[in-house]
Specification:
About 35% of the residues lie in helices and about 20% in strands. By secondary structure, the chain is α+β, with helices and mostly antiparallel strands. Among the domains are: about 45 residues; about 350 residues, 3-Layer(aba) Sandwich (Beta-lactamase). Strands 2, 3, 4, 5, 8, 17 and 18 form a seven-stranded mixed sheet that branches. Helix 3 packs across helix 9, helix 14 packs antiparallel against helix 23 and helix 16 crosses helix 19. The protein is elongated and about 95 Å long. It starts with a helix and ends with a helix. About 45% of the residues are buried.
Length: about 650
């Protein structure tokens, strides 16, 4: 057969395939979407406002986020309604509300041209109309010329009724024509009834669902916010049945679990100026979190108490916030997330919830990373169990000497963790890079030396995404320069920056004998008491390290709590394992390019009991002391916060 015949057959098959795909898409994949749009536009049906969202509960069923009904006035544009009729509706609403709702000054010129189109037309010359007719002047350009020629006297000539009616007119005309527009929300019964009694065309009332927080600001940034209408960056949701006036989760759990929390909107049939309910709204699904609100409140109470006490101590002028997290190491379930910032107003101190910063803000965390650093040393045969060194200072060519916080004598790998030797990590880092330390030596390092540390750190969760179920999680920050002193800084937590949840996953991984699990806030999703989704522990990776070395790190962390730098962070009788960290950094508090202070930040991580971990804890307090301040006092706030949390968790 001729070649053209096969080509023609091929084209027919392709076209037929596209046709079949389109039919399937219309009939099945987007059937409900297109059916609903058809009903809403052509059959004079309309949807109600955003349906009530699902609740958010703690692990014990206590309600953290609920809905309460608020009186809402909406508008649905009816077929054939004129601009003049809408202006009259807007004026009546302005009168009924007694000019309470402030208009936008910037929109008054546009509204003047809506009210007085003849005046606007008179502002355009015959020549300009001629250019417009010849398509040498666009409609937008014509309208812009009108706007520029409206005078201040014209605007001042508008009546109070006209000015205030602009508020409603623009709300009535925002978004798509077929959408319901929210005009007033959360109004009292008297005004609600008064508006509906006027029977204004297209204006109707609905008891709207508004978010209610029984525990106030507690966990507010983690729970998240919802928008007043569909944000521009979420326009893709229009293909999923949303309208421009719909509310949607824009942060925290409200955003992350939008698909479960959103409800199904009510459907109404338009009959004259009235609406007949066709399908009732259905509330969204409920989230049950791993968070224990009683634990959350207690940890918050402990943190607040110690923050207030610490603020009164000398050398704390740059200290403003602390973070505390509690989780179950074996599952990755997060039980409490506290992030508090002190806001000083005259002599009053208030607390702002900044708990969402545990996934976004990165800090120099200091010696807490040394468990991961020892892992790098073991992996690269730079050290072994029992390797000893005499603690001192490392002096490289053209680089100032770098030392431990004090001279610690001869120490082995276990003791190096217990007393937090920097020297031990410096020499180990040089060995990892292929050098045997000699005083004033040259030690050029390569990017691959940094990667040996960073790859292992990431396998613990340091500098990596933890998988926590919150939007916009950050990995932390990596330093960009390559130098031997910076490699040594990396090994003691003084170069790269990590988030609080990085540290939480890191300590959990050590508690789990090197098994790393995703962090979880959600426990399950329920619909009318029926579980429709359950969050199971998600295994991510296993640290590439022989069991004896992981046990050695765990033993070192135990020594930290028994007799080392972590002593008294928990009751000595508690079989706990952990690590403290102190970091130093400069800050520019007013962002003017001038460094204001050289500050200390404190970190602490632990888990207990060591043999069968029940809880893990992370505490971070940035900028607790100024090393160049008038006083030499260094805050003990992390020790006090950690001890308070430990006493609560393990003695109740």
């Amino acid at each position: 057969m001729p070649k053209k015949f096969y080509i023609l057959c091929g084209l027919i098959i392709v076209i037929f395939g596209i046709f079949i795909d389109r039919v399937i898409n219309l009939a099945y994949n987007k059937h409900d979407y297109y059916r609903d749009k058809y009903i809403a536009i052509n059959e004079q049906y309309t949807y109600g406002s955003t349906a009530p969202r699902g609740r958010i509960l703690d692990i014990n069923g206590k309600v953290l986020v609920d809905n309460k009904g608020v009186n809402t006035i909406l508008y649905h544009k009816q077929n054939g309604i004129s601009k003049e009729e809408e202006i009259e509706i807007a004026k009546k609403l302005a009168n009924i509300t007694e000019y309470k709702y402030k208009y936008d000054e910037d929109k008054l010129i546009d509204y003047f041209l809506v009210l007085y189109p003849d005046v606007g037309d008179s502002l355009i010359s015959d020549r300009e109309y001629e250019l417009y007719q010849k398509r040498k002047l666009s409609k937008d350009s014509l309208e812009e010329r009108k706007r520029k020629r409206v005078t201040e006297e014209d605007i001042n000539g508008l009546s109070e009724e006209e000015k205030y009616s602009s508020y409603f007119y623009y709300l009535m005309n925002e978004g798509y024509m077929y959408d319901n527009k929210i005009l007033l929300e959360d109004i009292d019964e008297e005004l609600y009834a008064k508006i509906l009694e006027n029977n204004l065309a297209g204006v109707f009332g609905e008891v709207f669902s508004k978010r209610y927080y029984p525990y106030g600001e507690c966990l507010k940034t983690i729970l998240g916010e919802i928008s007043s209408s569909l944000p521009s960056e979420k326009k893709e949701l229009l293909d999923k049945g949303y309208s421009l006036t719909d509310k949607v989760g824009i942060s925290g759990l409200e955003e992350y679990y939008e698909e479960y929390l959103r409800g199904d909107k009510a459907l109404y049939k338009i009959v004259g100026n009235n609406l007949e309910l066709v399908k009732e709204a259905k509330k969204g699904k409920d989230l049950v979190l791993d968070i224990d609100i009683d634990m959350q409140l207690k940890v918050e109470e402990i943190v607040k108490k110690e923050m207030l006490k610490n603020r009164k101590l000398p050398n704390t002028e740059y200290y403003k916030e602390s973070y505390a997290l509690v989780s179950e190491p074996k599952t990755g379930n997060v039980k409490a997330i506290v992030g508090l910032r002190m806001i000083t107003n005259n002599k009053d101190i208030n607390f702002q919830d900044v708990s969402i910063n545990v996934i976004r803000n990165a800090y120099t965390v200091g010696s807490v990373v040394k468990g991961a650093s020892m892992t790098v040393g073991y992996q690269n045969n730079a050290i072994d169990i029992g390797t000893t060194m005499v603690d001192s200072c490392v002096k490289l060519a053209n680089i100032p000497a770098k030392c431990s916080w004090t001279r610690l004598g001869r120490i082995n790998d276990l003791q190096a963790l217990a007393v937090s030797s920097n020297y031990y990590q410096f020499v180990t880092a040089l060995r990892v890079a292929g050098y045997k330390y000699v005083y004033n030596m040259e030690a050029p390092v390569k990017e691959e030396d940094f990667n040996k540390y960073r790859d292992t750190f990431a396998s613990f969760g340091l500098g990596a995404l933890t998988g926590i179920d919150l939007p916009k999680e950050a990995t932390g920050l990596k330093g960009e320069k390559i130098a031997p002193d910076l490699l040594m800084n990396l090994a003691i937590g003084q170069y790269d920056l990590y988030t609080p949840v990085n540290l939480l996953q890191y300590i959990n991984t050590i508690a789990n004998d090197g098994a790393r699990y995703k962090l979880n806030i959600l426990n399950k999703v329920i619909d009318n008491d029926k579980v429709i989704y359950e969050n199971k522990p998600v295994f991510l990776n296993k640290i590439e390290l022989e069991e004896k070395y992981m046990q050695r790190i765990q033993a070192g962390f135990r020594e930290v709590m028994k007799s080392g730098t972590g002593y008294w962070y928990a009751n000595p009788r508690l079989n706990a394992a952990g690590k403290t960290g102190t970091s130093e950094s400069y800050i520019d508090s007013d962002y003017n390019g001038t460094l204001d202070a050289y500050v200390i930040s404190n970190t602490f991580i632990m888990y207990a009991p060591m043999d069968e971990p029940l809880y893990s804890i992370v505490v971070i307090s940035p900028n607790t002391a100024n090393l160049k301040g008038k006083s030499s006092y260094q805050s003990q706030i992390n020790r006090l916060i950690a001890r308070g949390i430990n006493d609560y968790l393990f003695t109740n």
